[in-house]
């Protein structure tokens, strides 16, 4: 059984003031609390049920006193009745610490990475299940019907840190409670749900509400399930708490059965949001987001109490955008009210999409509540304030009416401006820079926030993103009349040359995509081979010097065959070693030992081959170690130099020979 009681504990309150009106503290039961003037989120930090959360009303609705201090999600003294299930490859894991109670007892558990903590005005908890890391992030957002930060955003971020894909699903179970009322109807569209009921994705409205009484509501709750920043669930079940407590994924569901707690005889409503399993690739991160908090209903009490709700603000990002207006009518009289009719009066800026402006409810019994829904659409994609009125009439009681405001906000409009270098120049036969940084400035010149903004660069063959950078960059939200500058560092690949077109794009979940294209010109580099003298100090008779054969900018190089000449009166070869060109990750590649003809001053057959053809920017073929015998002209020269590709075709290269004149003991070497 689930017992609801108060536990009194003396402890020290730790309070930290955060930005705005949000406050973080540890309460008398050890829960980590984040609260503002409207609601509080509190998370269990105990040995059992760590990470589970609940919601209370703090100040609640500004014009209502009855909701102060009331629960929205049951959780006293410490949350345990609501929990979240992560389904990984068919196995059900419960988010957070192990439980010693009924809710989630049959599930498996993971390993804590980060216990509940306050970070950036959020309560963040992180657990790991094998290679799957799940982060729970709880924060405050504005309700779409009140326009106030009286709603908790419930976010799960799931990352696959493994090397193979996993099937990942999510179930979020909320033990809803409206003050003292644990069985109030869930109200969605034009239906009051009082028994087990399933809604699929296609059947869902943008939000559902629940309240105990229209005439004097203590708490008005709202779950928002569709919106530009939310992840619409695949299914929502409204049912009793006991069934969801016992079944961690599948559960005992009986359409039409009252919300009686399974195994007991008390009303105890709850709900479960399901996101069906789908593949999460290695390195991929996916987020699931839903909102729950207070709902906004404009109420006028009377014998026929009338309440009306609709979004406080709607963003017109597409011409066919529609919204719902829902009216609740309660007969608070002691008699049956006859022939009740409800009429919707719209301003010029709204048009009706439903079948009828006037709807008949028939007769209403005492205390009976009915609800109806209209679907409407703003006529223009522009910012405007619109007021509509709902009127209710009956044959044997007074009429009633209520007006509510609706703000229509023009759509976001993204703009993209590029600032990039146009050319990479060549100096001394090498690129002046290995990489360049390009910038895209993204601005929103519209009247509303752009959500899910994502910027990316698409590069052609020959250009690549530099190590440590990434092609796609998630920006998130971009407020109206604001901008952000995004950098990318890119670099040419190999020996690419010429004009390389690329483009930068930006997309959003509620704004038109933008793409800008440009090009980068990479100047041509000359394929060359030449001598490099390692010694930079004075060379005198008796010294030892190293002459390297160096190649630059040779594309598709596979094999080299070469011979060089020298003045045997001036230089004496000691030994020859292979260059770094023919060493790959400490593996020695094909190389033949050169032949030294000391009598005629020739080193023949300096040959080597790569395992696969490569574009060589700069590398060493061989190092020839000489002893200086006497002063004079070294006469270093290429007798033969042939470079081949993998098709045995000769590659044209330019020879760059050096003159090395060695003087006497006091003379500097002359290197041209």
UniProtKB/TrEMBL annotation:
The keyword Signal appears for this protein: yes
Swiss-Prot/TrEMBL keywords: Signal
Molecular-function annotations in GO: carbohydrate binding
One biological process term in Gene Ontology: polysaccharide catabolic process
Chain segments annotated as coiled-coil in the UniProt record: none
Residues spanning the membrane: none
Hydrolase listed as a keyword: no
Signal peptide coordinates: 1-24
Domain Cohesin stretches: 531-640
Protein name: Alpha-galactosidase family protein
UniProt organism field: Halobacteroides halobius (strain ATCC 35273 / DSM 5150 / MD-1)
Taxon lineage: Bacteria, Bacillati, Bacillota, Clostridia, Halanaerobiales
């Amino acid at each position: 059984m689930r017992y609801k009681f108060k536990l009194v504990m003396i402890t020290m309150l730790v309070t930290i003031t955060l930005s705005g009106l949000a406050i973080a503290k540890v309460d008398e039961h050890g829960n980590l609390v984040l609260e503002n003037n409207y609601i509080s989120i509190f998370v269990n930090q105990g040995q059992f049920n760590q990470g589970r959360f609940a919601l209370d009303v703090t100040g609640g609705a500004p014009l209502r006193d009855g909701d102060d201090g009331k629960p929205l999600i049951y959780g006293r003294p410490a949350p345990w009745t609501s929990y979240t299930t992560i389904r990984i490859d068919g196995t059900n894991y419960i988010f957070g610490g192990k439980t010693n109670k009924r809710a989630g007892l049959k599930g498996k558990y993971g390993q804590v990475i980060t216990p509940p903590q306050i970070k950036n005005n959020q309560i963040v908890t992180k657990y790991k299940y094998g290679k799957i890391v799940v982060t729970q992030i709880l924060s405050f957002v504005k309700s779409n019907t009140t326009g106030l930060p009286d709603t908790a955003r419930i976010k799960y971020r799931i990352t696959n840190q493994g090397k193979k894909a996993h099937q990942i699903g999510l179930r979020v179970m909320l033990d809803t409670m409206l003050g003292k009322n644990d069985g109030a109807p869930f109200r969605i569209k034009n239906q009051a749900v009082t028994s087990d009921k399933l809604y699929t994705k296609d059947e869902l409205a943008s939000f559902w509400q629940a309240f105990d009484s229209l005439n004097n509501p203590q708490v008005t709750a709202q779950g928002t399930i569709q919106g530009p920043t939310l992840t619409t669930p695949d299914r929502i079940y409204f049912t009793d708490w006991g069934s969801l407590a016992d079944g961690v994924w599948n559960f005992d569901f009986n359409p039409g059965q009252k919300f009686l707690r399974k195994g007991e005889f008390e009303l105890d409503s709850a709900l479960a949001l399901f996101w069906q399993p789908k593949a999460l690739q290695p390195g991929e991160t996916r987020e699931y987001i839903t909102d729950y908090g207070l709902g906004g209903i404009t109420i006028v009490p009377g014998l026929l109490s009338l309440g009306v709700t609709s979004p406080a603000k709607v963003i017109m990002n597409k011409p066919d955008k529609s919204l719902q207006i829902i009216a609740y009518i309660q007969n608070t009289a002691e008699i049956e009210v006859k022939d009740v009719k409800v009429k919707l009066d719209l301003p010029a800026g709204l048009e009706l999409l439903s079948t009828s402006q006037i709807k008949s409810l028939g007769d209403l019994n005492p205390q009976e509540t009915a609800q109806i829904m209209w679907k409407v659409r703003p006529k223009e994609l522009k910012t405007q304030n619109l007021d509509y009125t709902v009127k209710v009439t009956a044959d044997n009681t007074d009429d009633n009416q209520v007006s509510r405001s609706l703000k229509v906000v023009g759509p976001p409009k993204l703009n993209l401006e590029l600032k990039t270098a146009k050319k990479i120049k060549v100096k001394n036969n090498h690129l002046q820079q290995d990489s360049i940084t390009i910038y895209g400035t993204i601005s929103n010149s519209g009247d509303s926030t752009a959500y899910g903004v994502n910027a990316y660069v698409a590069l052609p063959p020959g250009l690549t993103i530099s190590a440590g950078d990434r092609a796609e960059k998630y920006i998130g939200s971009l407020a109206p009349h604001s901008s952000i500058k995004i950098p990318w560092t890119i670099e040419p690949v190999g020996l690419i040359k010429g004009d390389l077109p690329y483009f930068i794009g930006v997309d959003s979940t509620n704004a038109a995509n933008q793409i800008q294209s440009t090009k980068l010109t990479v100047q041509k580099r000359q394929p060359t081979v030449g001598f490099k003298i390692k010694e930079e100090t004075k060379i005198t008779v008796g010294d030892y010097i190293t002459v390297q054969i160096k190649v630059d900018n040779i594309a598709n190089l596979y094999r080299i065959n070469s011979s060089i000449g020298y003045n045997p009166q001036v230089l004496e070869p000691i030994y020859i070693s292979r260059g770094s060109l023919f060493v790959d990750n400490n593996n020695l590649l094909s190389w033949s030992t050169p032949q030294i003809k000391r009598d005629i001053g020739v080193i023949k057959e300096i040959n080597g081959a790569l395992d696969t053809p490569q574009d060589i920017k700069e590398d060493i073929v061989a190092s020839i170690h000489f002893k200086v015998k006497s002063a004079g002209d070294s006469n270093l020269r290429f007798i033969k130099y042939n470079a081949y590709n993998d098709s045995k075709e000769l590659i044209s290269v330019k020879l760059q020979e050096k003159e090395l004149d060695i003087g006497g003991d006091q003379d500097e070497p002359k290197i041209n």
